[in-house]
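User: Here's a structure from my thesis project, written as structure tokens. My advisor, Dr. K., wants to see whether a designed sequence matches the one we expressed. Can you design one independently, without my sequence as a hint?
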């Protein structure tokens, strides 16, 4: 785990609508990220709401990389670290250079920081998200239990008592509802987690945490308003993300989307398309090739990040007289 500057994906500044005092004696926070924007933004959203954005440090959990470890990325990070240390010790014994393998920082540094600064600064809030951060966050609590308050965002699936608070969407417990039990075959239930109802240290949310508030939306408005002011209305915005287990992005899906968008061009003034970092290159190339020649179509060039403006359009459609389409949610419902 390495300390880095706070990721650019996180909105900066403290919301004017959230100028509230931080509960209790917590005056600082540490965010432990896993390198994925979707997970890290949930942590950022939480500390923003607590008024701690300008008083936090950001650490990133790095898996060991290179060599045989490259083939073991599906294993939990704690096991990857043990394998890395074992291989490194063998290589050192035979004077072999473990080429391409990068070490991983452990939780001791943060635990020591919490203990050494407790008298001066009080308890340290640790917020982590994602499966790769579970072992690090729980180790920090074990090493400095009296000096930290550890929040794990997203359900860790087991041993919830390792954390002071677990924040997870309500749908994670769907398998325990009467409807969920009817849908899951009896012989599969032992393999579906969680097995028990949420305890006192579990806080359920309707959806995922996020860092979108009035301040970030105003900032996005000022940043992108001039660029969109000249576009003909109504404006249709299409956000194209990346594949999932339930929705694989391929050539057929790309061509189907192109056909759908071409069929609605007559009804709109402009069509704005943006891709995410997870969008497969072949998908982006097909869509760009099929639609970029149309004078009504504007394809995002990858500079800046208009995502917050799309959110604003979804919430206040009259801002640009637009409709925002999420490919994953609406592609097959158009």
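Assistant: Designed independently from the structure alone:
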């Amino acid at each position: 785990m390495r300390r880095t500057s706070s990721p650019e994906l996180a909105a900066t500044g403290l919301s004017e609508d959230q100028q509230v005092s931080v509960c209790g004696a917590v005056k600082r926070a540490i965010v432990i990220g896993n390198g994925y924007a979707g997970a890290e933004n949930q942590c950022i959203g939480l500390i923003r709401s607590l008024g701690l954005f300008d008083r936090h440090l950001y650490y990133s959990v790095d898996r060991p990389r290179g060599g045989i470890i490259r083939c073991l990325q599906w294993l939990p990070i704690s096991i990857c670290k043990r394998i890395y240390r074992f291989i490194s010790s063998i290589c050192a014994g035979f004077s072999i250079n473990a080429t391409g393998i990068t070490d991983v920082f452990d939780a001791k540094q943060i635990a020591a920081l919490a203990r050494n600064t407790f008298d001066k600064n009080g308890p340290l809030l640790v917020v982590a998200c994602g499966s790769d951060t579970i072992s690090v966050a729980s180790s920090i609590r074990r090493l400095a239990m009296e000096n930290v308050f550890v929040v794990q965002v997203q359900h860790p699936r087991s041993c919830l008592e390792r954390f002071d608070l677990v924040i997870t969407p309500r749908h994670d417990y769907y398998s325990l509802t009467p409807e969920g039990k009817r849908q899951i075959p009896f012989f599969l239930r032992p393999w579906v987690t969680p097995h028990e109802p949420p305890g006192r240290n579990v806080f359920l949310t309707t959806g995922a945490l996020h860092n979108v508030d009035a301040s970030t939306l105003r900032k996005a408005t000022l940043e992108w308003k001039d660029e969109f002011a000249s576009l003909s209305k109504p404006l249709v915005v299409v956000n194209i993300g990346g594949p999932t287990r339930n929705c694989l992005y391929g050539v057929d899906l790309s061509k189907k989307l192109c056909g759908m968008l071409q069929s609605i061009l007559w009804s709109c003034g402009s069509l704005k398309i943006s891709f995410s970092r997870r969008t497969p290159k072949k998908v982006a190339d097909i869509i760009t090739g099929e639609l970029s020649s149309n004078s009504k179509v504007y394809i995002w060039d990858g500079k800046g990040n208009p995502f917050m403006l799309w959110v604003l359009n979804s919430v206040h459609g009259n801002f640009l007289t637009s409709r925002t389409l999420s490919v994953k949610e609406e592609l097959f419902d158009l």
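When you compare it with your expressed construct, this may help: The CA atoms of residues 314 and 324 lie 6 Å apart.
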